[in-house]
Amino acid sequence: MTLANLELDLEVFTGPFDLLLTLVLREEVDLLELQLAEVVLAYLDHLEARGDLDLENATEFIVLIAALLELKSRLMLLGEEDEELDIEPEQAAEELLARMLDARRYRSAAAHLGELLAAEQGVRFREAPLPAHLRSTVLEPAEGSQDPEVLGEAVGRLLLMPPQISLRHVSVPRVAVSERLAVLRNLLRRGAFSFDEAVRGADRMTIAVTLFALLELYKRGEADWEQDESFGEIAVHTPSAGSVVGSVAPAANEPAAAGLAG
Amino acid sequence: MSGVSEATESTAPTDDTAELPGLARTIEALLFLSTDPLSAAELAEATEAGEGAVATALALLGELHAPDRSGIVLRELGGGYTFATDPSSEDAARRLFSRPRVSTLTPAQAETLAIVAYLQPVSRPEIARIRGVSADSAVATLLDRGVIEEAGHSQFGAVQYRTTTQFLKLFGLRSLQELPDVARWEPTPEEQAELRDRLLKAGEARAS
Amino acid sequence: MSGVSEATESTAPTDDTAELPGLARTIEALLFLSTDPLSAAELAEATEAGEGAVATALALLGELHAPDRSGIVLRELGGGYTFATDPSSEDAARRLFSRPRVSTLTPAQAETLAIVAYLQPVSRPEIARIRGVSADSAVATLLDRGVIEEAGHSQFGAVQYRTTTQFLKLFGLRSLQELPDVARWEPTPEEQAELRDRLLKAGEARAS
Known about the structure:
The complex is a heterotrimer, with one copy of chain A and two copies of chain B.
Chain A lengths: L6 E3 L4 E3 H9 L10 H15 L4 H23 L11 H31 L18 E2 L9 H11 L17 H13 L3 E2 H4 L5 H16 L4 E4 L6 E4 L15 H9 L1
Antiparallel strand pairs in A: 1-2, 4-6, 5-6
Helix pairs in contact in A: 3-4, 6-8
Chain B lengths: L3 H6 L12 H12 L6 H8 L3 H14 L7 E6 L2 E6 L4 H8 L9 H13 L2 E2 H8 L4 H9 L3 E6 L5 E5 L1 H6 L18 H19 L1
Antiparallel strand pairs in B: 1-2, 3-5, 4-5
Helix pairs in contact in B: 2-4, 3-4, 6-8
């Protein structure tokens, strides 16, 4: 069984590993929604069930997962103004390919080194110390001959911080729930609307915060919604007659939230 | 042990008149004493002889210390000359010294060493990026065995590594130039296309 | 040298293609590798050959490794056999090996010494955390050269180090107060935290 046939049963995806890879690269499965840890766990289960370790496959898997993790972390750091940086599927595939080729190259080089070493098995060198009378005397440098600045410089170099990953692009602090609440209330005043309308053109973080604001409105009894199928359109409207506007409806938000998560 | 019967009757290479020239004898002694390979220039300086004379002496020693003529073989390694044993004496050496010369490398160590050998100087994060997993323990072992060493800091402050003369010695290399071009293991364009297809089109193939 | 005389009478003329019998080659290799003299019995055991065959091989080697024929001479010493160099190569060996050399600090040693100088007392694990790599060999060398010394144990039981008077002399300092102010080389001089904390923080940031 090859890595490609590794069967996965994940929250957002069920099927073989190579299909997942393809869908991720085509952005048909959102890398941000994919729990890579689940993939790793599934792979470990698979290894355990198999009982032996195919190094070739394991290395390929590790390289691919590491590359996916890196892609994912880059996606997470993308801000609104960097939208043009969005990674095209082909580009992502090229990057994965480059990583796999690099890993393969050095794996082959490693095999070559292994052969060289094997060819040298049985070749020994003399390790005996020099006869005492031939050993060189190591002279300590003269007093005061060393420059103390060398020490200060070394400490200065050790104080150097590695470049920080800039978090300025992350839009978390920029989207306030109150802001999105106001937008939703505005839309509600005009009647029913779909969730997609409310977040058209918005970035991921705004979408998430808007959803949170919608839950808040629901909780307060200001809004109600319908969603016919998972990932389907969410129709938002003012609560139908009978609902108590402005009061808390504690039990109500659970089924709604579950429906959304599905 | 083979060769016992030959030894009892043969006395072939003995001739009292076969003297080795003084310079070759001296160089032979220096190579015997030194644990590191010695370059022709170092030998010339130590013997106060010309480089040409040293080259002639080395050629003569190379003949005398060929694998079938001596148990001590002249090798050109790590930019210099050194004496080593021939693998044919390994069984006896193992019985006498009761430990193999080198343990083999684990795949992780071999991969890490290959990356250092080809990309030196290279830092641990770079090695980890290529391998997809941390290289800490492999680097520690390779440092411990003296085949790699520190080589300053990268611009981001990470310690960098390079291979040592000991690496060349153990792997029988005259210099790093003897390592084959890494492009040699480049997958063919067809193989690359196949990989690319696997990444982008595997789903399609499966769906159809 | 016992056994040598037996072989000297036999005559076969030297011939460039002359092969040395396998047993003699193996014994030659073992004597080359061993630091201590090897007895005929030890050689017989290692080569799994009879004592007679070993004696013959040793006689042959004694002949080949006579002072005028080789720079590597067979000696019988303390009931065993060993290779040594001939005194005629002494001058060259002295020129090559015995030249007094002034020890210099490697970059890893200088870095370790700087950490000890500025943070003393400091433990090995702390040095390793700051440097991002083990400091064992650098610490050992610095101890050996007498520029640092042990200074009790940390609260976690790790040995701590400090610089010595020898260190001050070497760097021409009257006291540790004369160490240059690190502020001159600081990448971020506005930072207020203690030097030790900042070094550890930078070291850990690099390691992550």
